[in-house]
Amino acid sequence: MAYDELLSMRFRDALPVRKGYSEKRMMGGLCFMLNGNMIGGADRTKDGQGRFMFRVGKEGHEKALKLKGAQPMIMGGRMMRGFIFVDEKDCKGKALDAWIKRALEFVETLPRK
């Protein structure tokens, strides 16, 4: 994964104003955190495809996979249940807002780190 400044800016700009946000370079991209828990992030694959990643939780995984553009997050050949990749072309405007809202609804249930 490679850091993508424009996608990261789109993610940052779509986050609702709230205390407890931070940013952290992880997994080759930039991840956005709430109270120390990952919400999601943005990166570019080795072949140049831009994508967003959202943390939806294990319970929300299957439902999220049914949404347009959703793909399971696979790292090192292993599916990371609770994390979803969405291609940048399927995540514009209200679609990005809806994914961020979905991720925040899960992350807000987690204890602070």
Description:
The chain is an alpha+beta fold and 113 residues long. It has one domain (5-107): Aspartate Aminotransferase, domain 1 (Alpha-Beta Complex). The chain is 26% helix and 37% strand. It has helices spanning 5-14, 61-65, 94-107, and strands at 21-26, 29-34, 37-44, 50-55, 70-75, 78-87. Strands 1-2-3-4-6-5 form a 6-stranded antiparallel β-sheet. A hairpin with a 5-residue loop joins β3 (37-44) and β4. It is globular. The mean pLDDT is 92.
Quick summary:
The protein is α+β, with helices and mostly antiparallel strands and 113 residues long. The protein is built from three helices and six strands, in the order αββββαββα.
Beta strand count: 6
The order of strands across the largest sheet is: 1-2-3-4-6-5
Order of helix and strand elements from N to C terminus: HEEEEHEEH
Sequence stretches where pLDDT stays below 50 over 5 or more residues: none
Query: Which fold name fills CATH's third level, the topology?
Result: Aspartate Aminotransferase, domain 1
* Structural class by secondary-structure content: alpha+beta
Indicate the radius of gyration in whole angstroms. Answer: 13 Å
